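call fold(seq) -> tokens
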Amino acid sequence: MSPPLQIACPQCHALNRVPGERLGDAPNCGRCGKALFAGQPVRLDSGSFDLHAARSDLPLLVDFWAPWCGPCRVMAPHFEAAATQLEPAMRLGKIDTQASPELGARFNIRGIPTLVLYEGGREAARMSGAMPSAEIVRWARAQLGREH
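ret:
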């Protein structure tokens, strides 16, 4: 049996301990009772970002976007579709750079949409520009050395 992983709840942001081999068993949050993996990106802001990026053991793929950005709106359903394929191996999150400009500045986001992959609280990879879901999945898995 593998050691438990710390998984941040996408709803209440509580940390949950889940055995690695049970990630695919639809675990629920111990605090709010909601699913830890719903196949949807979690909305992140300055209050929840560090919890998901640094305290959760899952890699975090973040879409930095803004509501006024046409390519961001085009990519949004593709990013959501990628979540259904990449969970529970990684968490997907979205940061609205208009609502949380401090995060865009903190991570030197110069163009949107920009995908940033965090592992262990550190940036592991970055890619700018809109992509279809298959390319998002392929890119994210390749960055972590998990081609399939």
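The mean pLDDT is 95.
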